[in-house]
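Record 1 of the preview.
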Amino acid sequence: MGSSLVLLAACSSPEIDIPVEPSSSSEESPAPTPPSPQRPFGLSSGLPFAECGPLEPSVQQPGEYVSTTVPQPDSRFMGYLLGFSAADKLCRVTALRSVRTGSEGAAVRAAFAELQKEVSSTYGNDSQVVDDVQADSSWTGPADWMIALQKEERMLAAIWPKEGDLAGEVTGVYLQTDATSINSALLRLTFYFKHPC
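->
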């Protein structure tokens, strides 16, 4: 993994505490409405804190707040983390998707591929993807996929460049997977806005 792991790990978020059960991978949900490239989930860069609706402070990171709703919600996501600058202006949004899966992580990898394809179709295919397990890991077999992810010895993530404008107010996109148990994972899809954090 090497330098790619270091690059992507620098963008990772701390654990969050939204008490929602993982959804079954077999459940059917309505087709999502594609978010506006310039305003993901209806949110815009520099939006004042007071205009972002009811928010609960995140206990993990200063300047970050938990929300269960946004102007243009996507039914695949169970909640959102909104990041604000020192001036109380919106600078990033992270959508959280919970996925139930088996030990091989098939449902997690499928959900990741789905989101990666959607983001690439909107913001371009020049993403850097890390899909690898540490060389010294004991968990390298197909059935070890989730336990390696849980032990942070495996990474599945993608980052779109934060150089220039990807689309409108969005300057970077990051997609990350975290194991919350041996049978469930959390996908974090983060959009960075022009307004600096």
